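Aim 2 progress update. The chain analyzed this quarter is reproduced below.
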Amino acid sequence: MKKVLWILPCLLLTLSGADLTGKWSGTIEIEDSGTTTPVSAEFIQKAALVSGKIGRTGGGDEESIRNGKVDGKKVFFEVVSSHTATPMKFTLTVVDDRLEGEMKGAVDEGEIIGKVRLSREKP
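Predicted structure tokens:
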């Protein structure tokens, strides 16, 4: 019976997908303007919840991640910034040691959509 109880948490961890905890870096490419911004993120995953920070690399303007969750290989979170009119909503997919997906929100000039590509940093 003890063996079964030990195997169950391992199986659940495997089914839930990769652990996102750690440092990530990459880019956000804004489709309308054609600009690419280097970004860094640090994620903390506890079960299906994700928290942490994300911001421009070297910019010192990291923002907290809120409402973060993992559903299989999908990752969802929001970031509120003084530079945006609405929360920026991220929808990402885990692909090996990468996160790829989209960021949507609004700035004073209108809607903003960006392609997000992050890679796990090596320790």
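The domain at 2-120 is CATH 2.40.128.120 (Lipocalin). The chain has a mean pLDDT of 86. These observations will guide the mutagenesis experiments scheduled for the next reporting period.
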